[in-house]
Amino acid sequence: MLLLHKFIGIITIRIMIKLRKISHMLKYLFGLPKSIYVNFRLLPFNQAVKLPIIVSNKTKLISLNGKVNLAKVKTGIIRIGFGGAEHIDYEYTRTILKIDGIVNFKGRAKIGLGSKFIIDKEAIFNAGDRFGITGDTIILCNKKISIGDNARISWQVIIMDSDYHPILDINNNIINEPTEITIGNNVWIGARCFILKNTYIDDGCIIAANTTITKNFNGIKHSVIGGNSAKVLKTDIRWHN
Length: 241
Prior knowledge:
The protein is of the alpha/beta class. It has a single domain, classed as UDP N-Acetylglucosamine Acyltransferase, domain 1, CATH 2.160.10.10. The chain is built from three helices and 23 strands. The strands form three sheets. Strands 1-4-7-10-13-16-19-22-23 form a nine-stranded mixed beta sheet. It has a seven-stranded parallel beta sheet with strand order 2-5-8-11-14-17-20, with no helix packed on it. The protein is globular, with a radius of gyration of 20 Å.
């Protein structure tokens, strides 16, 4: 009887794995029309035919007047609108995609379901290899945002390099111009963080959940940064996926 239960358990697990694979395949198939459109809109023909960008059918396309540059061209190397966190409502949540500037992908990238990826005209967004957003995160790029290899961005994070509303001094000069954001290699950004303009996060750092970054942490590697205002909480750390 015990052997029978084990056998049934093994068969059940295998069936569940196969059903999960079928579910993933169906999601890719449902998104195929949008994927084709996005690839041929943003990439040269010889790259677009390989469908390196796979887009979920739950992705709303706002504007695609920009350009995507790929260091590696392979089917499905960029995935937009798939995966996410357990709190995300997969039935009703949508991903928002707007690329009017330039996006450079160094390698594999994943932008999870419910994220808002907004790259304005003349803006530049650089993503390193193995760039990953869990889901339900907002990236607003008005000037330039650069993120290194193996970046992990949790849910409900906001990264924005502009205030999006000009503030003027008494002489009508704008005093809050957009300024660049740089995030190094192997950086983990926890849930509900704000990464704002004119900031630098160095390699190997962890940004604790609910932290607001508004200043330069250049030269401070392998550290936990947290709090408001943000400060170094611990040094000489390492983290793994």
